[in-house]
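To whoever is covering the structure queue this week,

Two jobs came back overnight. Logging them here so there's a record in the thread.

Job A:
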Amino acid sequence: MLRPRVPVNPLPTSHFTRTDIEPSARDHTPPARLTPAGLVTLAAGGTGLVLIVGTVLVSMLLAVAISATSVAVCAVVLRSLLNGQRRHR
C-alpha cells in the first residue's frame, strides 16, 4: 500500500560528453590582455587588500594582547585580596 515506486529512467545517469557537436569559436578565445592602466589598478587593489587584511589582523592581535593583560591584572589583584584575607584571620 505505501511502497515507493522507483521511476525508470530510460537514459543513462552517468556524465557523458556528446561528440557530434562541433566546438564553437568561443571555446578557444585568447586570454585577456591587461593594459598598463589595468596593471596599475590591479596592483593598487592588491596592495589595498593586503593593507586592509594586515590592519584587521594586527587589531585582532592587539585585542587579544589587551584581553590577556587585563586577565593577568585581575588574577594578580584577586591573588592579593585572597592572600590579604588569609593573613588577617
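Job B:
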Amino acid sequence: MNSDVKIKKDLISRIEETNNLELLETLQAILEASDVPAYEMSEDQKKAVEESRKQIGEGNCIENDTAISNLRQWLQNQ
C-alpha cells in the first residue's frame, strides 16, 4: 500500500474515533488553510525579482553587512 494511502486511512480512522472537538477544529483549520493559494506576485513584482537576480548574477550588489554599515554611517552624518 502506498504511504499516502496508508496515512489517509490512518487519519480517517483516528478522526472518526476522536471526540476531541479542539483537535477536530484544529484539523479543519489546517485543511482550510491549505486550500488558500500561495501568495502570487504581480507581473511587476516578478520583473523586479528577475532584474534583481540578474544584477546579483552580474555582481552588481553589495554584501548585507556592507549595506548596513553604509546605512549606519549615513545616518550618523544626518
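Note for Job B: The two ends are 68 Å apart (CA to CA).

Please reply-all if you pick these up so we don't duplicate work.
Q.
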